[in-house]
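Tokens in:
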């Protein structure tokens, strides 16, 4: 289960395509959410609006790129030529896992949904 803060509904039309962000390790765009286990702590540390939230899971068939602190920089630079839009050609979402992701501009274990069709909204 994942939790997105700041809106009460998932709106596909507001999703932006992936693009390069300030840091090579974190793209702009997509639909970002925290893992259920880390959501509240992450939201408060980032001063997010916790009154509005979307709870969702992703379809079992989703093709998810899993990144942790041991492979993040190399994966983006080598596999995708440092361009996040290339990731969107092959994956439905990016999931940041494991300890140490916060050292790469990622605040907590989270997911960035690229393909809105994989979302199964729970509430």
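Residues out:
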């Amino acid at each position: 289960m994942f939790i997105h803060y700041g809106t009460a509904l998932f709106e596909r039309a507001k999703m932006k395509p992936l693009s390069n962000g300030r840091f090579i390790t974190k793209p702009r765009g997509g639909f970002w959410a925290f893992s259920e286990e880390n959501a509240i702590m992450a939201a408060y540390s980032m001063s997010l609006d916790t009154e509005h939230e979307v709870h969702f899971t992703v379809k079992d068939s989703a093709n998810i790129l899993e990144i942790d602190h041991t492979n993040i920089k190399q994966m983006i630079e080598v596999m995708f030529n440092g361009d996040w839009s290339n990731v969107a050609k092959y994956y439905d979402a990016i999931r940041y896992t494991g300890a140490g992701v916060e050292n790469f501009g990622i605040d907590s274990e989270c997911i960035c949904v690229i393909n809105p069709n994989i979302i199964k909204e729970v509430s």
